[in-house]
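Might I ask for a little of your time on a matter of protein folding? Here, with my thanks, is the record as I have it:
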Amino acid sequence: MKVKKHMTSAKLLLVSVALTGSGSLIALSPSANGTRNSQKSHRVEKLNPLGIAPQPLQVPAEWKGLIGKYGPDNNVIYVLENDGQLNIQVKSSEADPLKQISVNIFRSPAHGPYKGETAAFIRGTRDHATAVIIDGAVFPRRSPRLDGEVFQPLSSKAVAELRRNALAAHPPVQTGEFLPADLVDVRMYDPTIRLDIRYATSHNFLGAPVYRQARAFLQRPAAEALARASKKLHPFGYGLLIHDAYRPWYVTKMFWDATPDNQKIFVANPAEGSRHNRGCAVDLTLYDLNMGKSVEMTGHYDEMSERSYALYSGGTSLERWRRDLLRKAMESEGFTVYPFEWWHFDYQNWKKYPILNLTFEQLSHLASEIPQTHQRPAIQKRLPARGFDTKKGNL
């Protein structure tokens, strides 16, 4: 493993990181020999507090439609981008670089499993590949990477039935001592945090709105930590975009009842309650501070596939870098990623809070006036926040 030193005009040391085969980030520490190196290390930490590698470049547009998963269950092929090269990976073997011959033709390495055979991609709609032909064998594409195809909406009648049953049910009995709930609107601590509350829309795996308001609440310590994580992302040009935060218990039951047994790793069991129900979990992604748009990650939010795994090694270097940047920022402030969902983070001490079943309407009295700012990269001075004590029933 080698450490690469990149010098800017100010002669600041940037420390590269390495990606393991699983796609996780490993930070490499700078040398601590001598006062001069220590001073450089201090400057690096101030410039790049997360110690992450430089941002990779976008892949060529003609490659985007080729990246994905091909073949039957017993012979799966992954096509991904790594360090500026298109790669092919068979099952659990090492990813091997492909040499581009033309727009759709690539050659596999002589030492790889296909021993120098050509890989010819067949493109369909929107320039996405529908198959790849290697050594005369056709490998159809699996789950094409097209927007909207990750959801299988339920009928409105089915969703209404799920809601009725969930509202009629009761959360699990809780024993022990808990901290009083102190839910706050997360944007009170950082107005650069944006909301895209998917469960207030039909753009979710149920295909129907679940919330009547697009709000994001967390327990106060978690909201404060989230604001600090957000600030650490600004030097990289990114902000936080929240898809979900506190979630009433009845919604967790709706999700559980609607999800097939073989995909229940993506939802919480209502018999145990969710960390979302405690106001200590948040689903989020990154958005570009300059463009104001969400960025591409290795998979879509709410997607129930391996692309959602926190260590999924497919996709592009830039997608994996963004995913790992988000994780580093969140983990530096006491959050832990859920291994099967790159977007889901649990705040420390979540066990100390009770499972709640308050609707957003019941929390509507919480301060909703979010301070405005036109300085996107800057964090605003923290404003006093008011929370709701469920034991006392008042502010």
